Amino acid sequence: MSNIANESKILINVELFVEDISNRKSKPYKFYKRLMDLLIKLDQIYNPDFHYVPAIDAMIELLLDLNEYLDDPQYLYKRLTEISFEEIQRNFKRHYRGHKRQLRDHRHSESENTRTLVGRMQEVSDKYSRILVVRVDLAYPLKYQNQIGIQQFSDDMDVLRTRLRDQDKVFKGLIEYAWALEQGEDKGYHCHLLLVYKGRERRNAYSVADRVGKLWKNITEEQGCHFNCHTAAYLKQFTDRNRLGIGMIHRNSLDEVDNMLNTVTYLVRPEKESQHLRVKTRKRMHTFG
């Protein structure tokens, strides 16, 4: 389904607005105009079946209260100005306290995910003399982001995860994998993907990542894009600092193994909280696996 606006960007802008207003000492310039614009945009992408973070819920509550005025911006603006800034701010602050608690829970969950992933990768490294570690990021170009909502992203990921579980084609011979779903201000909805193969069975990480990118483009009906973490230019910045942790990793090289373990933690690094999903199709929708 095609949206009429960039869902991801609108949700991030709403979250930032609620955060800003919650921390304000006084009403900002053109507060009601900005509030009205965001409400109209939020109305374009709001889905009552989805689950939003508390900061977004703060605006949704206002949206539902003023639903009858949304088709008339002039009257909506007039109605908004009849609500005091202090009242709106109190409501925002109440939701934002819950938002901060949820972010703390998110960081804790990510820390647990990190420990789990590092443990899994340590076991794989101990078991095989060499492993091929492949990193590829899957996303959507900006020109298509106004057509990609969380439902489409979730559906595309369901297809990808089925291929992973079935070890279909490029995933044949996988001995370990991990994925993390995120939402960024510029990248929109995206996925960090880690793939691990026996080193004696696969040797070309760039080729594997490229094939995964082409598969993603096929799954998304040509709307997806990918970043191959195995280009010479990208790898050079890590080899120059002796921190390369992807590609062929040898068990008897402590530096390679340590770098690999440090690298894989990027998938679920807790301090990347600005990359958290603001909306989920299901309350318990997983963002890591």
For the residues shown, what is the average pLDDT? 93
Structural class: alpha+beta
In the CATH hierarchy, the third-tier topology of the largest domain is known as Alpha-Beta Plaits
> What is the beta-strand fraction?
15-25%
Shape: elongated
Order of helices and strands: HHEHHHEHEEHEHEHE
CATH class of the largest domain: Alpha Beta
Examine the secondary-structure arrangement and name the CATH architecture of the largest domain: 2-Layer Sandwich
Oligomer status: single chain
Helical percentage = 40-55%
- State the distance separating the first and last CA atoms: 26 Å
Q: How many domain modules?
A: 2
Spans where pLDDT lies below 50 across 5 or more residues? none
**CA gyration radius, whole angstroms:** 22 Å
How is the biggest beta sheet arranged? Answer: 5 strands, antiparallel
Number of helices: 9
Number of strands: 7
Pfam family, one: YagK_YfjJ_C
Domain YagK/YfjJ C-terminal: 127-289
Protein name: Inovirus Gp2 family protein
Organism: Acinetobacter chinensis
Compact summary:
With 289 residues, the protein is of the alpha+beta class.
Give a structural overview.
Residues 127-289 form the YagK/YfjJ C-terminal domain. It comes from Acinetobacter chinensis. Pfam families: YagK_YfjJ_C. The chain is an alpha+beta fold. The chain folds into two domains: 7-102, no CATH class; 108-280, Alpha-Beta Plaits. The chain contains nine helices and seven strands; from the N terminus they run H-H-E-H-H-H-E-H-E-E-H-E-H-E-H-E. It has helices spanning 7-22, 31-45, 54-65, 73-81, 85-127, 150-166, 205-219, 232-239, 254-264, and strands at residues 51-52, 130-139, 174-184, 188-198, 225-228, 247-250, 279-280. The strands form two sheets. Strands 2, 3, 4, 5 and 6 form a five-stranded antiparallel beta sheet that branches. Strand 3 and strand 4 form a beta hairpin. Helix 2 crosses helix 3, helix 3 (54-65) runs antiparallel to helix 5 and helix 5 packs antiparallel against helix 9 (254-264). The longest helix is centred in the middle third of the chain and has 43 residues, at 85-127. The radius of gyration is 22 Å and the shape is elongated. The mean pLDDT is 93.
